[in-house]
Amino acid sequence: MLENNDNTTENQSEKTTEKTVTEEISKVVNEIENEVAENAEKETEKEEIPVLDYNTMEFDELVIALEKLIQNNPVQQIKSNVDAIKNAFNAKFGKLLADKKEAFLAEGGNSIDFQFSSPVKTQYNGLLKDYKIKRDAHYNQIEKQLKDNLEKKNVIIDDLKVLIEKGEPNTMYNEYQKLQDRWKAVGAVPRNHYNDTWKTYHHHVERFYDVLHLNKDFRELDFKHNLEEKLKLITRAEALLEKEDVNSAFKDLQDLHRLWKEDIGPVGKEHREEVWGKFSEITKKLHDKRHDYFRELKSKYQEIIEAKLLVVEELSSYDTSKNKTHKDWQNSIRDVETIRQKYFEAGKLPYNKSEAVWQEFKTATKKFNAAKNTFYKEEKSSQSENLKQKMALVEIAESIKDSEDWEEATNTVKRIQSDWKKIGHVPRKFSDDIWKRFKGACNHFFDRLHARKNELNKEQQEIVDLKKAFLEGFKGEEVSTIEEVQQSIAKWRDLGRLPRNARHLDGKFNKAIDAQLEKLNLGRADIEMMKFKNNIESHLAQEDFRKIENEQFYLRKKIDETVREMQQLENNLSFISNATADNPLVLNVRKGIQGFKDELDILQLKLDYVKKIDY
Fold first, then answer.
1. Does residue 543 carry a pLDDT above 80?
2. Which end of the chain is more exposed for a tag (fewer CB within 10 A), N or C?
3. Degrees to nearest 5, angle at CA 80 with 76 and 86
4. Rounded distance, CA 549 to CA 542, Å?
5. Contacts of residue 361, Cβ cutoff 8 Å, sequence gap at least 6
6. DSSP class of residue 240?
């Protein structure tokens, strides 16, 4: 009796375990088939287009993007993009509204009186209204279509009932195939009716096959074909257990369930429970594998969150205080983008896990963007001032590009070129144009200047060659009169003015003149004055007025020194007044005094000559 009781208990335990497993399988299958029903309804919508980064766009760009989305795409494809545009626009407009209100209150306004309207906001609201109208119309149409499909399938079920009860044995099978084609042609039905509608239809399909006695061959052939197809589905389902991508495998399993229910008919009674049991068991195994995958994934979520928070901390602490130039900010933008990429590379999180850390990430990003925007706002103002300054330089360059005042114009162009380099950036849309104008005017002037110098260089070289030849000839001449010397000096000057790099020839000519004058029977004063006048006239010809001034300064200084030395000799003479007149010492002193007097006469003649020159 005890043994029997133990067996009874064991059997009951096995039955209880078997019942529990069956219930779990049934629960899993129902869960998957509910997802199949939901996906069937979603198949009426097309996949959405990729979402752009709208946070970087300005108001007018957002409005244009929204308008293009609505005009160029089916309304069911743009929901995510429209939501992203709404978030970006509302955030920007909220900040603008707050700034306007703050300014209004700062000017003494009352909060209750504050109003602000914007044409771009009006346009945005109008586009959003158009979108909502199209969206509602689209989903109303989908809802209507799903209900129509439900009615059509219910009609097919009713027709199938009639066929079972009143169909002609010889035509029943052909009529059933027509009903089956009609069923497949009808689209999705509302998800809350999907499973019940299919179960009802499938129940009557099995009833049909059960009463199909007269066409037994057709029935057996169909049963065999359906069994083969369902066994193939089981094989495909088993293969999914080996697939690494669990989510992709689960999606494929849902497709297999849809094929099992929608495309393949019933099998013989003796196989129905067996094949469905195998398919259901595989379904549960894959479901459990997916469940384990997500459980393991959840254990990694905290690691991902911590990694993302480290990125947020790095982004929040990023220092922009030393950024002073556009180049500095461009480097920072690249650095921050590298940091941002680390956030996305850390891994994906479900919405309920990611939202909090995502908000912190957005706050850190906004902090950087706010500092960047402040710089470029000030930079924009500075660039406008720079534009005014550079435009002024452009006008100067264009006004003197054809000037004939070569020295003054050259100095001015060089000065404004230097000033240009000291002025900072201008708005990008103007930079190329004003640079082309400025560079063009400067190049035009320097091209003219270089052309003129080339012409002058050619003329000056001819003068150098002529004077070299004249100098060589003059050195070999025998000059006998002062007039001939003066004629040679005049000819020398008539040949033209030497360039600065060849003025040493004037010195050589003056030495040649001095040599010729020494050969003439002239007094010392005449020779000295001839030499001096020739030297001064050379300075005048070269417009070297500084040397003439130096000559005058030298003469005054030399006269003062000569007078002092002469006075010293006269003073010395007073100490030897008792000496005889023919005393050698007295004679020597008197000779020295006379030399100083002669030197003073020549120096005074030179000074008087220089003072009369008008330059």
1. no
2. N
3. 115
4. 14
5. 308, 311, 312, 315, 343
6. H
* CA atoms of 147 and 151, how far apart (whole Å): 6
Q: Alpha-carbon distance 57 to 92, whole Å? A: 10
Residue type for 541, please? Answer: A
SS3 category, 456: helix
pLDDT in tens, 421-469: 998 888 878 888 999 999 999 999 999 988 887 776 777 788 888 888 8
Banded model confidence at residue 4, pLDDT cuts 50, 70, 90: very low
| Residues sharing a CB contact under 8 Å with residue 398, sequence separation 6 or more, in sequence order | 437, 441
Cβ-contact 128, 62 below 8 angstroms:
no
What whole-number distance in Å separates Cα of residue 375 and Cα of residue 326? Answer: 9
CA nearest to 294, candidates 231, 250, 359: 250
Question: Tens digits of per-residue pLDDT, 367-382?
Answer: 888 888 888 777 777 7
Residue 268: CB partners within 8 Å, gap ≥ 6? 220, 223, 227
Place of tokens 């359906």: 226
93 CB-near residues (< 8 Å, 6+ apart):
59, 118, 121
| Residue 220 amino acid letter | E
**Tokens 């994934």 found at:** 297
**First-last CA distance in the chain:** 151
For the record, the structure tokens of 178 come out as: 């027509």
